[in-house]
Amino acid sequence: MRVTNAPASRKRRIRTIKAAKGFRGRRSKLYRYAADATDHGKQYAFRDRRAKKRTFRQLWQARINASARAAGTTYSRFMEGLKAAKVALDRKVLADIAATDNAAFGELVKVAQNALKTKAAKA
């Protein structure tokens, strides 16, 4: 007699249907379509976990650049100066400071500009 493996199959299908909760129409009701929809969803999630990192870095750079230009310098010169001054703040923290605390960001700009001047004097 052939073994059907029914309990395991049913469990797998129910798991897929539950994963498709919130999808519209047959994509949330029928196993065949729910399996396709969840597979696509997993592909998008995998891709976009990496894309999210890129988009946030772009956002932070734009915020830092806007504040740096308001303070009289450019993004690249500001970052070069921070590196020369050995200030170990990442772009996420710098963008937060730029958006919330204008005075502290102004001090960072001064530190960066002084470091650039000493760097130029050495060279």
UniProtKB/TrEMBL annotation:
Q: Which GO terms describe its molecular function?
A: rRNA binding; structural constituent of ribosome
Coiled-coil residue windows: none
UniProt entry keywords in alphabetical sequence: Ribonucleoprotein, Ribosomal protein, RNA-binding, rRNA-binding
What name does this protein carry?
A: Large ribosomal subunit protein bL20
Q: Which residues form the signal peptide?
A: none
Please verify whether the record's keywords include Ribonucleoprotein. yes
Q: Which family does it belong to?
A: Belongs to the bacterial ribosomal protein bL20 family.
Q: Which HAMAP family match?
A: Ribosomal_bL20
SUPFAM superfamilies reported for this sequence: Ribosomal protein L20 (SSF74731)
Any one Gene Ontology BP term: translation
- Name of the gene: rplT
**Function (record text):** Binds directly to 23S ribosomal RNA and is necessary for the in vitro assembly process of the 50S ribosomal subunit. It is not involved in the protein synthesizing functions of that subunit.
Q: Among the entry's GO cellular component annotations, what is one? A: ribosome
Q: Pfam family example for this protein?
A: Ribosomal_L20
Keyword Ribonucleoprotein included in the entry's annotation: yes
Q: Which Gene3D superfamilies match?
A: 6.10.160.10, Ribosomal protein L20 (1.10.1900.20)
